[in-house]
Design brief:
Blueprint: H1 15-32, H2 41-51, H3 61-70, H4 77-80, H5 93-104, H6 110-120, H7 122-131, H8 133-141, H9 146-155, H10 171-177, E1 188-193, H11 195-201, H12 203-215, E2 218-221, H13 231-235, H14 239-258, E3 262-265, H15 268-281, H16 285-292, E4 294-296, H17 297-305, E5 325-329, H18 332-335, H19 342-348, E6 353-357, H20 374-380, H21 382-390, E7 395-398, H22 401-411, H23 418-426
Parallel strand pairs: 1-2, 1-3, 3-4, 5-6, 5-7
Helix pairs in contact: 1-5, 2-3, 7-8, 7-11, 10-12, 11-12, 12-23, 14-16, 15-16, 17-19
Length: 431
């Protein structure tokens, strides 16, 4: 048995060693059970152990595999687990599940492997789909249609899952073509890591982020040749492809950090991966340098506001549209970064009343898109659905594009990104 989450360890991909480590960790989890209500994996685990009269060694390989399959990498067990590294027991459940997926990847069915490839190649899919967006959106936008049923059978995306439409123009194309908006004496300079969601699907979020930052005298640039953060590869067990994507991003982002810029990310999953995963899988000093200088968008703006200098503080000239009450969804991967309620704090600067909901949307990367997980994902999202439906807020928002799509699917409400609410509050019109 090897306690390792390091993919370069010689026993990382040995299944017998993995099974022994799973038994060790499952025994620790069984003795604690603080995570009993966080995700489907833990009730499944505890039910399996209880069915064997509490004898963890009797849990079968099939029962172990079900626990692995139901982990969607929300990372919330980091918040509750008392045994995470540097504890002597070194219990890191999410990274153990990543290791398990890597070990079991060769045994996946052809359908599962096709789905992994489809979900992992976000840049290729985005590049093609933005060019063909009218056709792609028409085909993918009608849930349950014949094309969507074919899509389910071929690439494994459930035919009823609401999919985000692709934009006609990529965010980076807009940024590179826009008129010169150089700030004469910026208070600071940042690089906005666009993420595949902003780049291909929701460029308005990027436009609003740039507008809000520049409104506050902060100059903005984009990284050279950035690509998807690689989260779909990592979560599906393709460590090699993840390391390749991460290494390229680290190399590009390190250039900006060394030039004195902070890296700002508008999507919590991508921010988490850059800050927490890159230093583990990309073994060079630049990976840690990039991680140390990466911030969530709201986190960065609030830190700027709290510096104390009147010159640095966020401007409060909110002369545009300010909702009276906002329901803000705090995404799992925001919570796991332990940066606090920065999205809420940012929205409160506008004068709006802000209500928070901290329930999982059941998407978490790409897990909730897969046909085999769809019904369970919707069950996970039930408490979030209930909270949204009970709210009397004038406006719904959240940082995670995938979670926002799940909220729209479950409730019919279309959440905004917090930075878009800020932009409208400033009187900045949508492009």
């Amino acid at each position: 048995m090897t306690i390792t989450y390091d993919p370069s360890h010689p026993k990382y991909l040995e299944e017998d060693d993995l099974r022994a480590e799973l038994e060790r960790v499952f025994d620790l989890c069984h003795g604690c059970r603080l995570c009993f209500n966080l995700c489907p994996s833990f009730p499944t685990l505890f039910d399996a152990i209880d069915a064997h009269d509490g004898i963890v060694s009797k849990v079968t390989v099939q029962e172990q595999n079900k626990v692995i399959d139901e982990c969607y990498q929300c990372k919330l067990c980091y918040i509750k687990c008392p045994y995470v590294p540097p504890h002597d027991w070194a219990l890191d459940f999410p990274r153990l599940m990543v290791r398990a997926n890597a070990v079991l990847a060769p045994k996946k069915s052809l359908q599962e492997k096709v789905t992994d490839q489809f979900l992992g190649r976000t840049d290729l899919l985005g590049q093609v789909s933005t060019v063909l967006s009218p056709i792609v959106n028409k085909i993918s936008g009608k849930r349950g249609s014949l094309p969507r049923q074919v899509m389910q059978k071929t690439v494994g995306i459930h035919s009823q899952r609401l999919l985000p439409p692709y934009a006609k123009q990529r965010f980076s194309s807009w940024f590179n073509k826009r008129s010169n908006s150089a700030i004469e004496s910026p208070s600071q300079a940042v690089t906005l890591f666009p993420t595949c969601f902003v780049e291909y699907m929701e460029p308005q979020v990027g436009k609003d982020a740039i507008a809000v930052l520049e409104h506050n005298n902060i100059s903005c640039s984009l990284p050279d040749k950035s690509k998807c953060c690689g989260a779909p590869w990592l979560h599906n067990g393709n460590i090699d492809n993840f390391i390749k994507a991460a290494t390229e991003n680290v190399s590009n982002l390190a250039v900006d950090v060394k030039a004195g810029k902070k890296i700002i990310v508008a999507q919590p999953t991508c921010g988490y991966v850059i800050r927490k995963d890159y230093p583990i899988y990309v073994k060079n000093s630049d990976a840690q340098l990039v991680a140390d200088n990466t911030l969530d968008l709201a986190e960065f703006l609030i830190k700027t506001h709290l510096k104390g200098s009147d010159q640095d503080r966020i401007k409060l000239d909110f002369n545009g549209v300010v909702p009276k009450k906002i329901l803000y969804h705090l995404a799992c991967h925001s919570r796991a970064q332990n940066v606090g309620y920065r999205g809420r704090d940012l929205l409160k600067l506008t004068g709006a009343e802000v209500e928070i909901v901290e329930r999982c949307a059941g998407i978490d990367g790409t897990w909730g898109y897969r046909q085999e997980n769809y019904q369970l994902a919707r069950k996970v999202a039930e408490p979030l659905k209930s909270a949204v439906e009970k709210s009397n807020a004038d406006c719904f928002c959240g940082d995670c594009h995938l979670a926002n799509m799940a909220i729209e699917e479950e409730t019919g409400n279309t959440p905004l990104h917090p930075i878009s609410i800020m932009a409208r509050a400033y009187g900045i019109k949508a492009d």
